[in-house]
Amino acid sequence: MSDELCFLSAATLRDKISKKEVSPVEVMSAVLARAERLQPVLNCFITLVPEMAIDGARRAEEAVMKGETLGLLHGIPFAAKDLVNTSGVRTTFGSLHHDDNVPKEDAVSAARMKAAGAILFGKTTTPEFGHKALTDAPLFGRTRNAWSANHTSGGSSGGAAVAVAAGIGPIGIATDGGGSTRIPASANGMVGLKQSNGVIPHSQVADAFGNYTYVTPMTRDVMDTALMLQAMAGPHPSDPWSIGTVPQDYVGAARAEGDLKGRRILYSATLGNRMVAKEVRAAFERALGKLRELGAELVELTETLPDMEPIWKVINHTTWRARFDELIRREDNRVSPSLVRQVAMAESWTGADYQRAMFQRTDLFRTMQRLFEEFDYLVTPTLSRTALPIDQDLFEPIAIDGVEIGELRRNWFPYTMPFNITGHPALTLCNGYDAASLPIGLHIVGRFRDEASVLRAAALYEASESWLDRRPSL
Length: 474
Hints:
The protein has a single domain, classed as Amidase signature (AS) enzymes (Alpha-Beta Complex). It is built from 16 helices and 15 strands. The chain has helices at residues 2-6, 10-18, 24-42, 50-65, 108-115, 158-165, 182-187, 222-232, 250-253, 278-293, 308-329, 337-345, 351-374, 408-412, 417-422, 451-463, and strands at residues 45-48, 77-81, 119-124, 136-137, 141-142, 171-176, 191-194, 214-219, 264-267, 297-300, 377-381, 397-400, 403-407, 426-433, 439-446. The chain has an 11-stranded mixed β-sheet with strand order 1-3-2-6-8-7-14-15-11-9-10, sandwiched between helices. A two-stranded antiparallel sheet has the order 4-5. Helix 11 (308-329) runs antiparallel to helix 13.
């Protein structure tokens, strides 16, 4: 029964806890036992806090028994990516330089999860400072895919995706700076949302005004994503993008009711990408058929969008240089070689280069705004192929259908980076599996600050499929 508890959704647990059908202590005990059993295989946690978690679960149970008003996520276990500050709990950023760092206060996202009644039980793995789409670091080693020990978890929120996929907690906080939630969510068959800029306040980002990174939900289904978004959304003084935002009814939007009649979907299998795996393309075409059956009108994108990878790289790598160059130059430097190499790429870029990239960011935003005047959604694959081999190097070329096609970032996830830059909401959910039983992801992008519409389309698509019935064989 304990493993069955671990695979119940947050929405189901919320209902059962409120009805006293299961206790928060029972749920947390099951999650912690599963974490202890699977951590040596998956390596998806940097830190676990079982005593703190059980104490929180006991307090949650007492509140239920006393008939107190319960929060939106009362008694639900959650983990947080180790880039997200958690009060009193070690937060390492995946770095040897911060291996004993213990924040004194929570990030806004973590504080709001706790205020909604959720209980923190651990910190999930991330490459150092979330710098790549593979989850490994000198501090903890390598995180494996939940579906195959021979494949990467993706990154940089690899630990968050693997933990949720493996039933080690129903939900987790992730982050996304170029696809870091959606890449591992797709590679592990999970739901990963990158919301619009400011919808969930980012209280830790160094450049709040030029921000392109997001603190996000990681879940197994669309309704749980909506619950997390409802808990974390809303304005906060620390994030200028968030000021004046008004949360929508995300939970109501995530109910799979009605259809997509009258909705227009723009779609692209490539989005300028050179090559897409045959099985990914087949799953994508099948998903388009499902969306058409739901009543949507589908139109293929013929306009060529700007190549976003060089734009993203200038913005991102100059940010990293400003943040990490001094640390790298220290005599005791123990920074990951792959991060050092990327910071070095920015040495020749000037302030004018950065500003030109920001001009291009504006141009792309306005292009998307123009497209969304005519269309409700843009739909693409999430990744050009399923999870990469476990020993894939960030700088080595990847292969698709046996053909070597070029470096990882440009060729594996060109679909995700543009929407970190423009700020539009983008969600991935499972739309099939390849012959090796590795998950495939469908990417749904919506109008700026209209997360509710994206959740609705995703929920309707999710209800038309049966992928939620599948679990990784661990």
